[in-house]
UniProtKB/TrEMBL annotation:
Binds 1 Mg(2+) ion per subunit. Can also utilize other divalent metal cations, such as Ca(2+), Mn(2+) and Co(2+). It comes from Propionispira arboris. CDD domains: TPP_PYR_DXS_TK_like (cd07033), TPP_TK (cd02012). Homodimer. One of its GO terms (biological process) is pentose-phosphate shunt. This is Transketolase. GO terms for cellular component: cytosol. SMART domains: Transket_pyr.
Length: 669
């Protein structure tokens, strides 16, 4: 290690320790221990250009151990990504560019929002999958225009979380050789030594998954780390797992190797001792020598040169393969929303009863030709979720050009991988499972919502209509769970037109994930169904009067039930408007005038009908209204029997509305 390299590594440590100390909050241990491997990677092996952080062929770096965010912020500052010393000094403060955990879209140079341990591992797998597919699609002989690596750094916690095993098992199966994992092995967790709860041979586990295993014995030896990275790159058939043995809190005499270095400031005296131990020339907070800044500036130029070379290559590629350039633009631009909205073939359907999962499958197979970058699949459930793209090959180790993804029974990792595919850019992805298993995907869906990336979730078998599989497979509270999440559209369509609307929403969304919640059982095509579903709620069956006597609100399979109840209630001179509400989230985005036109305040008699728990419906039915919903878990029996058993019948909806209407009219008098 040269003197300037050693000083540059220590600059990362000093800035990280000072930021945590200034905030009086944070995790200094990982940045102190991992600084050398991060420097060696970013300085000597990783293609990245601080002047253009979105360069499409840059190497990706994900800090899965997001609690060590000051490691990443120090790198971004030193390499010139725009983070200032003031930004570092405002670590964890309101409105700063240096939040407690890295946030995608908030801080330039952050490739993914991380914090939940292991999540970054799954997202890195998704990025590597995207790279391999795009390379297979676009690269030509002598024109490797898609040619970059995905690096991810995590620690013991990331390896303990099950999501990493799920994701790495798939990565090994797929032979993602452009994926390189750094394991910061310091044998310390919050509670103490990892021997308390984590004694497995991690290397043997990853070898069993199909990874090349590399061990760096000294986490401060830049030469050894560099050789490990080059060995990883040399393997063209396997992803690589580099174990780097480090000491948490390295350089701080009182904290080095101790659990107390993990998640609390070192303390002013210990920060001073750290600087003295590292022979830092000044004790001033956030001081970095000019020679170090100059070194990083020179290193950053290498990235700019790499992009310049790529730009030249890409220009020649476009000239030689103009059709490929046109396809490239299609992949990297948003779908034409107006064109899709007016595409008659996309919105066309057969007028016969069909399950919305089947209708969704039809939509997917229309979209696959409209959007050649549609890239998706399910957690071993494509025949049931109807998410297979017909006539399209499968993505596999032998065929990276395939677009049908097989995630295996790995819902949590699947959702994290979908985040990574979307973050990478160039592809529009969807994933699928049974709705009840949204419990497994929810943590990664939450990250998608937080990052503002438009992942699509196809969630079928949406109610007690699952039937014989019983309560373990019958979603009850999941609609409420997902609806509670900010920046997340939950769309439960009632028929073909609404299903197409849901897919239109998902494919044109730029910053919001979409869950399409779909039936197993057949539903009729409804006469009043329209593209107005894109407003979240609309009148699907109007009352005879300008101001109706009552309003029935429903989603999905229960809209038909509400329409049938309207007919029966008319016989008792109760004039009912039926509102289909496929997406509460979209409805809340509409103007107050529109919402009033659909649900006028003057109409107090309201009943919501949905085969799920009633949580969330109170704001629409009001204190005088009622719900026909589930009160507990389901049961194992044919679907028709269950709908009768739990009160989802025309008669029960009619009787419920009559009670509400009578109470409302009595109150008016």
């Amino acid at each position: 290690m040269s003197n300037i390299d050693m000083t540059s590594v220590n600059a990362i440590r000093i800035l990280a320790a000072d930021a945590v100390q200034k905030a009086k909050s944070g995790h200094p241990g990982l940045p102190l221990g991992s600084a050398a491997m991060a420097y060696e990677l970013w300085a000597k092996h990783m293609n990245h250009n601080p002047k253009n952080p979105k360069w499409v062929n840059r190497d990706r770096f994900v800090l899965s151990a997001g609690h060590g965010s000051t490691l990443l912020y120090s790198l971004l500052h030193l390499f010139g990504y725009g983070l200032t010393v003031d930004d570092l000094a405002n670590f964890r403060q309101d409105g700063s560019l240096t939040p407690g955990h890295p946030e995608y879209g908030h801080t330039v140079g952050v490739e993914a929002t991380t914090g939940p341990l292991g999540a970054g591992m799954a997202m890195a797998v998704g990025m590597a999958m995207a790279e391999t597919h795009l390379a297979a699609t676009f690269n030509k002989e002598n024109f490797p225009i898609v040619d970059h690596y995905t690096y991810v750094l995590g620690g013991d916690g990331c390896l303990m979380e099950g999501i990493s095993s799920e994701a790495f098992s798939l990565a090994g199966t797929l032979g993602l050789s452009k994926l390189i994992v750094f394991y910061d092995s310091n044998k310390i967790s919050i509670e103490g030594s990892t021997d308390l709860a984590f004694t497995e041979d991690v290397q043997k586990r990853l070898a069993a998954f199909g990874f090349q295993i590399i061990i760096v014995e000294n986490g401060n030896d830049l030469v050894e780390i560099g050789k490990a990275i080059e060995t990883a790159k040399a393997d063209k058939t396997r992803p690589s797992f580099i174990t780097v043995k480090t000491q948490i809190g390295f350089g701080c005499p009182a904290k080095q190797g101790k659990a107390s270095a993990h998640g609390e400031p070192l303390g002013e005296d210990n920060v001073k001792a750290l600087k003295e131990n590292l022979k830092w020339e000044k004790l001033d907070p956030f001081y970095v020598p000019d020679a170090v800044y100059a070194n990083y500036k020179e290193l950053a130029k290498q990235g700019a040169q790499a992009e310049d070379q790529w730009n030249t290559l890409f220009a020649a590629y476009c000239a030689k393969y103009p059709d490929c350039k046109t396809l490239w633009d299609t992949f990297h631009n948003d779908v034409d929303a107006r064109k899709l909205l007016n595409n008659e073939a996309f919105w066309a359907y057969e007028n016969k009863p069909q399950a919305t999962r089947n209708l969704s499958g039809i939509a997917i197979n229309k979209l696959k030709d409209i959007m050649p970058n549609l890239f998706g699949g399910s957690a071993d459930l494509a025949p049931s979720t109807k998410t297979h793209m017909d006539g399209i090959s499968d993505f596999s180790k032998e065929n990276y050009i395939g677009r049908n993804l097989h995630f295996g029974v790995r819902e949590l990792a699947m959702a994290g991988i979908a985040n990574g595919i979307t973050l990478h850019g160039g592809l529009k992805t969807y994933i699928a499972t049974f709705f009840v298993f949204s419990d497994y995907i929810k943590p990664m869906a939450r990250l998608a919502a937080l990052m503002g990336i438009p992942v699509t979730y196809v969630l079928t078998h949406d109610s007690i209509g699952v039937g014989e599989d019983g309560p373990t497979h019958e979603p009850i509270e999941q609609l409420a769970m997902l609806r509670a999440m900010p920046n997340f559209n939950v769309f439960r369509p009632a028929d073909a037109t609404e299903t197409a609307a849901g897919w239109y929403l998902a494919m044109t969304s730029k910053h919001t994930p979409t869950a399409l919640v779909l039936t197993r059982q057949n539903l009729p095509q409804l006469a009043g169904s329209s593209k107005e579903a894109l407003k979240g709620a609309y009148v699907i069956a109007e009352a005879a009067k300008e101001v109706p006597d009552a309003i029935l609100i429903a989603s999905g399979s229960e809209v038909e039930l509400a329409v049938n109840a309207k007919i029966e209630l008319a016989k008792d001179n109760i004039d009912v408007r039926v509102v289909s509400m496929p997406c509460m989230d979209l409805f809340e985005e509409q103007t107050d005038a529109y919402k009033e036109s659909i649900l006028p305040r003057a109409v107090k008699a309201r009943v919501a009908v949905e085969a799920a728990i009633d949580f969330g419906w109170g704001k629409y039915v009001g204190i005088d209204g009622a719900t026909v919903t589930m009160k507990g878990f389901g049961a194992s029996a044919p679907a028709g029997i269950l709908f009768d058993k739990f009160g989802f019948t025309t008669q029960n909806v009619v009787e419920t509305m009559k009670k509400v209407y009578l109470l409302a009219t009595d109150t008016d008098q």
